[in-house]
Amino acid sequence: MGSELLELREYIPGDPPKAIAWKVSARRDKLMTRQYDSEVPVRVRLLIDGAPSTRIGSFGRRLIDQSMQIAAGIARSAISSGDPVGAVLLDNMSIRRVAFQSGERGFHKLIESLAEFSAISAPPVQSWSARLHDMTLRHMAERFPELFEFRLSQIPFTWWPMRPSRRKVFHQRYVMAGILGIHFDLSIATQIRLLNDNGLMAEFASLFLGKCGVSRLEPLSEREIDAQTNLNFGAISAAIVNCTQHARDNEVLVVLANLFQLGQGRDQLLSAIRLAVSKHHRVIVTCPSPTFRRFTATSCVPKSNTVQHLLDAGEQIRFKELAADFTRELRRVGAVVAFSGEQEAIQLVLGEMEFARTGRSNVRGARL
């Protein structure tokens, strides 16, 4: 339980019987518990979901950005207390594991891995279209406005005549090929191919938009959403089981995932969490908020009768009901639930770390 006696405090349901100070309890006529200063650090493992559904939107407004903010706060607090922190980074393509890190150098190494994972995305292959053309051109104008000056991006001389509309499109294509060549360090031959090859232009434009935080333009169909959701639940469940098999005693598993899209893998996820809890590990499930706000009673009331405010309130109500369902199911298997829109998400994780440090178990399914 520890090496040095830290303090005596009143008994709390869940304290191990061997920690009760029976002589002191008899003198004070109430149960007292010995709390030790443990020299064994608490190992924290972050399981971060990087599925395509978490990468939609611009940087700072994506679901994965919320998860990274919570993960960085947990890592800073844990490493400052001397507790090592590791990570498992999951997406639809691969699983990347970051070894447990400690100290300032380890913290910066962990943060660098998290930043690289959140920035790099694998956008799906998209066909060249007017929407992809306009979106790419708009982001290029925002990031490289100096390259759109007329004296730097003049249309080259051509032997064949062009209509004014066609000449404008050719000029935009010419500028886009040059910017992609600078951004990806392409050869002159490849840049010339970009002027006429729509497939090649669509490939590099998708990569460019992926680095700008736009992973997909077309909306997903219901079949694609179900397939990604089931794959996402399966990958997270397998990662939890793998961490449970190779973990030491009383590790803290922090699952940062988008669980608002229910799929057939939900039961598999609950079974994996139940297994981790049965092995005396602590599981905290933190789900990013799609509305970037807490699900409170005031947030569900529209500010006015405008269409936008009514839609925002309806969306807030829908996600609040889903959050209540998630909370009931996850608490039933012994997990602690929080939402990244709440300011207490990091405090919940730190509280669970303190419980793991003392070796005490809380009431099953209760929120601390």
How much beta, percentage-wise? Answer: 5-15%
pLDDT below 50 for ≥5 consecutive residues: which ranges?
363-368
Rg for CA atoms: 26 Å
The secondary-structure element order is EHEEHEEHHHHHHEHEHEH
The tally of beta strands, per DSSP, is 8
In CATH, the architecture of the largest domain is 3-Layer(aba) Sandwich
Q: Which word captures the global form?
A: elongated
Instruction: Summarize the main sheet.
Output: 6 strands, mixed
- Helix content range: 40-55%
According to CATH, what is the topology of the largest domain? Rossmann fold
User: What's the CATH C level of the largest domain?
Assistant: Alpha Beta
* Neighbour order of strands in the largest sheet: 5-4-3-6-7-8
Write the layout of secondary structure elements.
Layout lengths: L3 E7 L11 H7 L3 E6 L6 E6 L13 H18 L4 E6 L4 E7 L1 H17 L10 H14 L20 H21 L3 H9 L1 H14 L10 H25 L5 E5 L9 H13 L3 E6 L19 H26 L3 E4 L5 H14 L10
Parallel strand pairs: 3-4, 3-6, 6-7, 7-8
Antiparallel strand pairs: 1-2, 4-5
Helix pairs in contact: 2-3, 2-11, 4-7, 5-6, 8-9
Report on this model:
With 368 residues, this protein is α/β, with parallel strands linked by helices. The chain folds into 3 domains: 4-37, no CATH class; 44-123 and 219-358, von Willebrand factor, type A domain (Rossmann fold), CATH 3.40.50.410; 130-211, no CATH class. The protein has helices spanning 22-28, 63-80, 103-119, 130-143, 164-184, 188-196, 198-211, 222-246, 266-278, 307-332, 345-358, and strands at 4-10, 32-37, 44-49, 85-90, 95-101, 252-256, 282-287, 336-339. The strands form 2 sheets. It has a 6-stranded mixed β-sheet with strand order 5-4-3-6-7-8, with helices on both faces. Strand 6, helix 9 (266-278) and strand 7 (282-287) form a beta-alpha-beta unit. Helix 2 runs parallel beside helix 11 (345-358), helix 4 packs across helix 7 (198-211) and helix 5 packs antiparallel against helix 6 (188-196). The two termini are 22 Å apart.
